[in-house]
Write a structure and sequence with these properties.
single chain, 432 residues, mainly alpha, two-stranded antiparallel sheet, 18 helices, 4% strand
Length: 432
């Protein structure tokens, strides 16, 4: 097993990999509850989506571990689920069955361009400074999500989109305590810092009476038939549906690419040229997982930025992903237990991981304005639009523009020209 996963070669050990896998799962376990809740808005039953989420996450994460051998967890994307539920179904008026058909088709297209190595060519053509910007942007995005989940930052008014939460509330105080505890444990070089912080704050919530213990701890109910192969392809080949498929394609592509490069940079898995060796393997896993997601009736899946929490805990190999995958499978029976983890427990963990990823800003080349502007656009828009894809696609457009105006057109790779063109189409056809 050590040789297969290259555990010793990558400076890890079994304890770090298992702990990293557990940390990733606990940090992103909220997806099992939040994702089905969002899809309910599209008229999909909660229990059915819950089961579909587990199956797609288990399949993708397990294959990521055994085939790609990377410490990345796969699950339905936040952001894309909201796009499907609220824009495609609620605003554009398509049925959820037609929306899931778009997911399936995009997965097939992704699989084809991955097998043809077009995705690898595109990703390897991205400049190192942009790769680091993805890391920093993901860090800021994670921090923003964590602050919001913790209640420290809340939605404001039209004049002030966000503002400080009630810092005297139990939730905010426990979240702040969680951040301090995890930070101190990291300073003490404890690999279990995040998982310890999560558990301590959850236990504190139980002690203070804020968290009610579930009536039952295990639930073996399954619902595989409600969403399995329920796709409606009647609108797939119509002009009005093209923007939907294009949007799903671009969001999935840039989200996965940003996560793979950003988390890999922090885990020191990139080569001297800033590329992830054998990147086609995790990209193929991402594509196949989206196909499986469509078959079982849920939205696009891909590498989750919360994988960074597992990396921070020491994960470096696919063994961590195998551990996370098995925990996803067990979640079929552990849903009542998982549902008790509150936002103010996992929110601080996301803030800490975001902080550590944001620290990569020191590696950015900022004395060249043609590098500074796209990096700034990527980092800021990732967080302020609450959408990783928007930030990255905007960066792909701005980068060549800066190089052209400064007479540095030779620094633009062929792949970057293609990414810029795709990004322009994305903004042109995006159903705002």
């Amino acid at each position: 097993m050590d040789k297969y996963f290259r555990i010793s070669e990558l400076g890890s050990n079994y304890r770090k990999e298992i702990l990293g896998g557990i940390t990733t799962f606990v940090t992103m376990s909220y997806i099992l509850i939040v994702h089905p809740k969002i899809m309910e808005a599209a008229g999909i039953p909660f229990q059915a989506t819950f089961t579909a989420t587990i199956i797609s996450a288990f399949f993708g994460t397990l294959v990521m571990g055994l085939y790609a051998k990377r410490p990345f967890a796969i699950a339905p994307y936040m952001g894309e689920n909201a796009f499907i539920a609220f824009t495609v179904v609620k605003v554009l008026g398509y049925s959820w069955q037609q929306a899931i058909a778009a997911i399936f088709v995009s997965g097939i297209i992704f699989t084809l361009i991955t097998v043809l190595k077009l995705r690898k060519w595109l990703v390897n053509g991205i400049p190192k400074n942009m790769t680091i910007s993805f890391t920093v942007g993901i860090g800021l995005f994670l921090t923003f999500i964590g602050l919001n989940e913790s209640g420290i930052v809340v939605v404001g008014s039209p004049g002030a989109p966000v503002h400080i939460g009630d810092l005297s509330s139990l939730h905010s105080l426990l979240a702040i305590a969680g951040f301090i505890i995890i930070s101190i444990l990291i300073m003490l070089k404890k690999n279990s810092a995040i998982i310890i912080g999560l558990l301590l704050i959850t236990i504190a919530g139980i002690i203070f009476g804020d968290i009610a213990l579930p009536e039952k701890y295990f639930d073996s109910s399954l619902n595989l038939n409600a969403l399995f192969w329920q796709m409606d392809f009647s609108k797939v080949f119509t002009w009005g549906f093209i923007p939907v498929i294009l949007t799903v394609l671009v969001m999935d592509f840039v989200d996965t690419m940003g996560t793979l490069l950003g988390v890999s940079y922090k885990a020191d898995l990139l080569d001297d040229n800033g590329n992830l060796p054998e990147i086609q393997k995790p990209m193929l896993v991402d594509a196949l997982s989206t196909v499986v997601a469509g078959i079982f009736g849920t939205t696009s899946t891909g590498a989750f930025i919360e994988s960074a929490a597992g990396v921070q805990a020491g994960a470096r190999t696919g063994l961590a992903s195998v551990v996370t995958a098995l925990l996803f499978l067990s979640a079929i029976f552990l849903a009542p237990i998982l549902s008790i983890f509150p936002g103010y427990a996992y929110g601080p963990a996301m803030v800490v991981v975001g902080m550590l990823m944001f620290s990569s800003v020191k590696d950015l080349q900022l004395d060249d304005i043609s590098e500074l502007v796209p990096s700034f656009i990527i980092i800021i828009l990732m967080s302020f639009t609450y959408n990783m894809g928007i930030g990255m696609t905007a960066g792909f457009i701005v980068y060549p523009l800066m190089k052209i105006f400064l007479g540095k057109i030779k620094e633009i790779s062929g792949a970057l020209w293609v990414l810029a063109a795709i990004s322009i189409l994305f903004f042109a056809f995006y159903p705002y």
